[in-house]
Every structure is written in C-alpha cells, then in structure tokens.
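Support request from a user on the community tier.

User writes: "When I paste my structure tokens into the form, the page sometimes reloads and wipes my input. The last time it worked, I copied everything first. Here is what I submitted, just in case something in the input itself triggers the reload:"
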C-alpha cells in the first residue's frame, strides 16, 4: 500500500464506500436501519479521513494500520453492492444484515476516540518530531558558532523561556497518596511515561512541582529535570530552544549518548490512555479542603479579624462563624481552585459579607459568581468547540440532580431521541466514552464484564463533579428563558421561579425539562425529554404531561428507599411519540396499567420497581430491561405476546423462579439476558423456538442445574455467558449442533463442561473469567 502516501488513495476508498451506501439508502428497502446507521457513521468520520490522508502525504510514509483501514473500506464497498442483489432468501438477508452491522461496528471501533486520536496524534507527533530535529540541527550549528567565537551568545530571536521547576504553593494538602504512588514509579525502572489526568483546577501542576522538588527525585535526576508548559498551539522550536538554553549539554545527550532511564510525566485534562491508565486526582476530602480554604481565607498575623473568624468554642459549642466556614467549604466541592480563589475573595471580609455570598450561591452557583473558576473550567469545555454534538451532550448532564449517579443507559436513551442518533446507541456510547476521556465525567462500573456481545451498559453509571455540573447549567442559562434548550425546575418550599408561574404569550421551546419535587402547569410543545425526580411514598404525574405531544423519552426517579406508588399513570397512554421510558423505585399497581396501553413504546426500563402486580400493555416493545426488581417472581405472560421484542434483560431479580413456556412465541428475540437471578430453576423447553436468538446470558444463576436439549435448535446462537452457574453440572451433547456458536464466556468449572465437545465445535472460543463483583462503586 505504498501508493497510500502518494495521493488521497485512502480518501478515495472512503469516498467509494460512502457513495455506495448513499446509493443503497435511496434504492433498496432492505437493511434500511443498518445502511442509515452506516451512512451516519461515515458522515461523522469523513473529516478525520481527510486529515489522515494529508498527514500521510506530509510524512511520506504509510503503515499497516492504514492498510487495514483501506482494506476495510474496499471490502465494505463490495459488501454493500452485494447486499443490493439480495432477493427473497431469508438466510442471506439475515447474513448480510449481520455483516453490514459488523462493518459499521468495525469502522466505529477504528474511529473511536481511543483509535482516532491516537492514530492522528501519532502522525502529528511525527511531524513535530521532524520539526524538532530540524530545530536541533539549526540550533546546534548556531551553538557551534557561539562556542567557536563566530557568533554572539544570544541564540535565536526573542530570547528564551525557562525550564526550571516553579515554586510550589505555600500549602500543599491532599496529595500525599498521589505523590507516593507517582514517586515510586519515577524512582523505579520500567514505566517511562506517566499521565496525571484531572479537570482544570484539581491540583495537577501543584502535584508535579512538588514531585520535582522532592529530595529523592532530585537526588536521582539531579539537574536533568525539565519543566515544560505546552500550550494548545505549541511551538516546538521554541520549546527546544528553551531546553537548550536551560542546559546546553542536552545536545550531547541527543547526539552522542543513548538516553537511559528517562521519565516523562505529563499532566492533562485528557486521559491519554494510549500511554496506560492515567493517574486521576480525586477531589479533596473535607479535612484537607478546610485546611486549604482557611490558609487562603485567614488574614496574616496581626489582623483583628483573624481571631473573630477562626474556630472557637463557647461552653463546648461551636460559634456560628465556624458554620460559615463549613458552608463555604461545602460549596467548593473539594476543588483546590475554588477553595483557593474563594478563600482569597472572602479574606478579611466581615462575616455578614460571607453570609450574603453564601446566599448568592444558594440561589445561583459558584461558577456564576466567580470569573476565575468559570474561566478555568471553561477551558475544558472549549476543547469540545469542534464537536458541537459532544458539547450538547455534556450540557444535558446538568439536567440530573446534584450528586446523582446517572445510569448510562438512561443517558444513552435520552441522547438517541434528543439528538437523533442511531437506535442501537453506538454513537451515544462513543460520546459517553469521549466525555470520560476528557475528564468531563467519570464512568463507574458495578462489575467488569468484558466481551458483552450486545454492548450491555446496565452496569455502568456516570458521575460528574458538581462544579462541572454547575458549568453545564451556567452554559444553558445564557439564553433567554424562551430560547433555552434545557430547563431545570428544582422547587423548594413551593417557591417556583418567575418564568414558570407567569408564562406570557411566548411558548417555552425547551426540548429537555428536569423537574424535582413539585411542578406548575407548563406549556412545552417542543419537549422531547422529561426527567422527573422526587422523594415520597406517593407521587402523582403532573397533568401537563398529557399535552406533551412531542415527548419521546420519560425518566421517572424516586430517590426514596422504597418503591413509590405512582398515580395518574394512564395519561401516558395519550403520548403517541413516547418511545422510551425508565422507571426507578416505582410500584406498578393494577389500577395504573389495567386500562392503559403504551402503543408506541419501543423500550421500557424498570429499576428497583415493584412489578408483582404486572405491567402496562406495550404491544410494540422492542427492548425491556428489568433490574433489581425483588418482587418479580414470574415473568408476566403478557410479554410473551409482544412478538416485536428483540432484547430482554433481567438482572438481579432474585425471586424470579421460572420463565413462562410462552416465551417461545418471541420469534424475533435476539438477546436474552437472565443474569444473577439466583432462584431461576431452569430454562423452558420452548426456548428452542427462539430461532433468531444470538445472545444468551445466564451468568450467576446459581439454581440452574441443566440446560434443555432444545437449546440445540437455536440455529443463530452466537454467544453464551454462563459464569457462576455453580449448580450446572453438565452441558447437553446436543450443543454440538450449534453451528453458529462462536463464544462461550464462563468460569473455570463451567469451561470444563465444554471440553468433551472441543473437537466437534472447533469454531467455539471458550473464555474463562473470574468473579469480579465489587462494591467499590457504592462508595462513590
């Protein structure tokens, strides 16, 4: 593939595939969802293809990575053209549909952040390295002139910066654990490059300067410690000049010696995971946060205010002023930047000013009131300016309650409908991971299930630092109230904001609304996503929902401990555009669903709900997720009449003891997940009628003792998960008829059950995994 570097051959292959897909979308009725998803993927990646092509030409080289991409694009064009010739052969339709889906997934994988940025950055780095080499050569010649007396000592134009380590702040707190971990890596061999990753203002620079000034670190590296600040548009020539000016003998290191035992420590708002797992800085704990704040907020010795502000006890009780300090520290959310800036802002001020400042924050936010904090956080968001969709998705996060662990599936469902993404959520998942890579969110997994064949995300939660949430809310609040895309209504003490109680003739055009506790009457004709949060035993759905004609996604979360009874649920039956609903800690009663049909609903999610009395009618449902619903003993037989169902996921429903025989009626079911259902005694024989089932998960179903022989009739079964099925002592010999089976994920004991059939199932890969349940996520 040497010709890749001589012109835009990669771009040409991409263009041919793109053209073929566009033509197929217009000319065939088959595979429309697959083709449109593929078209969207190619449209998103077109600019990156052009950039890679130009860099290939600039560097005058190619590599195997580009060869694989080229082959993928060319073979993709052939596949699309062949799919146009498929007629009535159902088997070929299914096979080509799967291959088109695989093509889209393969292209997405190549262009996901962890590959796109790495591939692109590698090439950019090579370009910059060429610049550095040229700069070193020129500077070397200039230095030779200087040393031989032919020139002046002033090398280059404009002078030089310094590579010296800057001073650390007067007080450093909360970094002991990070310093110890990184120090061990710097002093030991092995790892040469480390990354410290965190949002702006979290103390990355303080950490590094403290390390550089550590006596043991200086003892090992001596004067060979270089501290470089790299801007968003770095001038590498100037950087090299700075290094040489700081220590001229570095040229000899580059030219005549092999550099050994070097260490590069990078701080970044990004994860840069190509270089291994980054070291992430957590927020300060309450004790360290208080120390740092008091250091900035307390005037120097001699001030009369000092004694009146610091902690005092009178008859064993803390004076009110001390509570002011606690309130300010609480608002700063463990951010070193916020603690330092606000400490200096309030330093020496009268307690009444502290009280008024706290009042302002209770009605707004720190981000709103302090420019320095806003500017620092804004830089993280500015990195998304080239990706407006990613920025919009970031700002959607402000619609969830403070300190709330957001289910990843809820975000994905919301983004699919709100931003018109592919129905399978591939693009939404990519956005989620890129926001995490930029430290704009944290992803917390309740367990680590590698190899989930259908992209399962129910075990993943999204958390966001409160200051970043405030930044998102601040961004949303810049527009006039009637022009905002998102509205947050957090009602306290029945005090509603003016805009929702005095609506004039202008309608509210928001597409996303989040309401906590109570509600007014609202007119929102354009609303597409509604998030309701409350904490009570009984909750009545607001009547204005009936008029939300454009509503597509509804998320109802009860933050109480026990399921709440939901009244007025029948109004949802009038919403003809409602496609996705998620209920959390809700009790479904017969009066809620006996006369209600959600005829257009495509996905329903129930988390910690009481479903013992049944479910509402959902005749066109495609996906249902049920998790931690302890009262569920039997799967409602009404679900088995929904022939449109493609995915059923039932997780940790410990009282579920059996599946109805009618489950065999679900002729379009592709995914059946029955994980951690400890009392499930087995699978019905009718499961053999699920001719489209491709993925079966019975992991951690301790009570299943055997699999029915009818499992051999699952002619399209590709993947099976059975880790932790401790009572399962045998696999029926009929599994040798599973010709499409490729992957089995299980523990060591269950792997041995497949050994007798190894030679008769040569295509099957058995992956052994260990029990990986962790409760660490609860601490977050």
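"...and here is what came back when it finally went through:"
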């Amino acid at each position: 593939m040497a010709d890749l570097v001589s012109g835009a051959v990669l771009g040409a292959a991409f263009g041919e595939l793109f053209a073929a897909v566009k033509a197929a979308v217009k000319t065939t009725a088959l595979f429309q969802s697959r083709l449109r998803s593929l078209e969207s993927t190619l449209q998103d990646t077109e600019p990156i293809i052009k950039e890679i092509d130009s860099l290939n030409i600039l560097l005058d080289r190619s590599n195997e990575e580009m060869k694989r991409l080229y082959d993928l694009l060319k073979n993709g064009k052939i596949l699309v053209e062949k799919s146009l010739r498929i007629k009535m052969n159902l088997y070929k339709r299914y096979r080509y549909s799967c291959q088109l889906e695989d093509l889209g997934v393969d292209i997405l994988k190549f262009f996901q952040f962890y590959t796109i940025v790495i591939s692109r950055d590698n090439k950019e780095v090579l370009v910059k390295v060429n610049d550095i080499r040229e700069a070193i050569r020129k500077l070397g010649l200039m230095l030779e002139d200087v040393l031989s007396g032919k020139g002046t000592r002033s090398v280059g134009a404009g002078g030089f910066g310094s590579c010296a380590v800057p001073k650390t702040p007067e007080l450093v707190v909360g970094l002991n654990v990070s310093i110890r971990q990184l120090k061990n890596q710097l002093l030991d061999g092995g790892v040469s490059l480390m990354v410290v990753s965190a949002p702006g203002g979290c103390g990355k620079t303080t950490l590094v300067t403290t390390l550089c000034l550590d006596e043991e670190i200086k003892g090992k590296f001596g004067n060979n410690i270089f501290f470089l600040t790299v801007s968003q548009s770095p001038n590498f020539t100037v950087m090299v000049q700075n290094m040489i000016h700081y220590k001229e003998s570095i040229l000899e290191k580059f030219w005549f010696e092999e550099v050994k035992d070097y260490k590069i420590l990078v701080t970044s708002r990004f994860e840069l995971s190509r270089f291994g797992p980054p070291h992430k800085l957590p927020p300060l704990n309450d004790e360290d946060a208080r120390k740092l704040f008091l250091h900035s907020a307390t005037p120097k010795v001699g001030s009369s205010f000092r004694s009146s502000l610091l902690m005092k006890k009178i008859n064993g009780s803390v004076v009110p002023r001390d509570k002011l300090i606690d309130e300010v520290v609480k608002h700063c959310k463990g951010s070193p930047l916020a603690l330092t800036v606000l400490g200096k802002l309030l330093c020496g001020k009268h307690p009444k000013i502290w009280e008024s400042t706290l009042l302002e924050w209770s009605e707004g936010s720190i981000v709103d009131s302090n420019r320095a904090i806003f500017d620092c956080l804004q830089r993280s968001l500015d990195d998304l300016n080239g990706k407006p969709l990613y920025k919009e998705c970031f700002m959607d996060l402000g619609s969830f309650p403070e300190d709330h662990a957001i289910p990843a599936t809820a975000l994905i469902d919301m983004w699919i409908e709100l931003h018109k993404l592919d129905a399978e959520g591939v693009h939404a998942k990519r956005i989620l991971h890129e926001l995490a890579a930029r430290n704009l969110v944290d992803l917390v997994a309740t367990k680590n299930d590698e190899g989930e064949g259908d992209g399962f995300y129910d075990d993943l939660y999204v958390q966001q630092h409160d200051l970043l949430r405030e930044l998102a809310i601040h961004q949303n609040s810049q527009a006039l109230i009637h022009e905002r895309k998102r509205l947050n209504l957090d009602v306290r003490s029945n005090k509603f904001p003016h805009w929702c109680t005095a609506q004039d003739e202008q309608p509210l055009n928001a597409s996303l609304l989040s309401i906590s506790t109570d509600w007014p009457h609202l007119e929102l004709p354009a609303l597409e996503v509604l998030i309701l949060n409350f904490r009570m035993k009984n909750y009545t759905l607001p009547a204005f929902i009936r008029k939300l004609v454009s509503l597509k996604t509804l998320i109802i979360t009860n933050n109480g401990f026990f399921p709440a009874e939901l009244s007025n649920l029948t109004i949802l039956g009038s919403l003809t555009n409602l496609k996705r609903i998620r209920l959390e800690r809700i009790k479904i009663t017969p009066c809620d669903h006996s006369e209600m049909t959600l005829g257009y609903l495509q996905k329903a999610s129930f988390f910690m709900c009481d479903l013992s009395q049944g479910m509402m009618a959902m005749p066109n449902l495609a996906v249902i997720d049920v998790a931690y619903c302890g009262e569920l003993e039997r799967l409602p037989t009404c679900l088995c009449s929904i022939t449109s169902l493609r995915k059923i996921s039932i997780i940790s429903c410990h009282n579920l003891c059996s599946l109805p025989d009618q489950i065999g009626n679900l002729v379009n079911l592709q995914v059946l997940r029955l994980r951690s259902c400890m009392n499930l005694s087995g699978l019905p024989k009718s499961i053999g009628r699920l001719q489209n089932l491709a993925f079966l998960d019975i992991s951690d179903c301790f009570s299943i003792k055997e699999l029915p022989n009818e499992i051999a009739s699952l002619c399209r079964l590709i993947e099976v998960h059975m880790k932790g099925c401790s009572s399962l002592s045998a696999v029926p010999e009929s599994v040798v008829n599973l010709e499409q089976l490729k992957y089995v994920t299980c523990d060591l004991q269950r792997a041995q059950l497949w050994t007798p059939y190894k030679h008769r199932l040569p295509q099957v890969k058995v992956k052994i995994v260990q029990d990986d349940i962790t409760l660490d996520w609860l601490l977050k």
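Agent notes: The reload is a front-end session timeout and is unrelated to the input. The longest strand covers residues 529-534. Residues 113-148 form the longest helix (36 residues). Escalated to web team.
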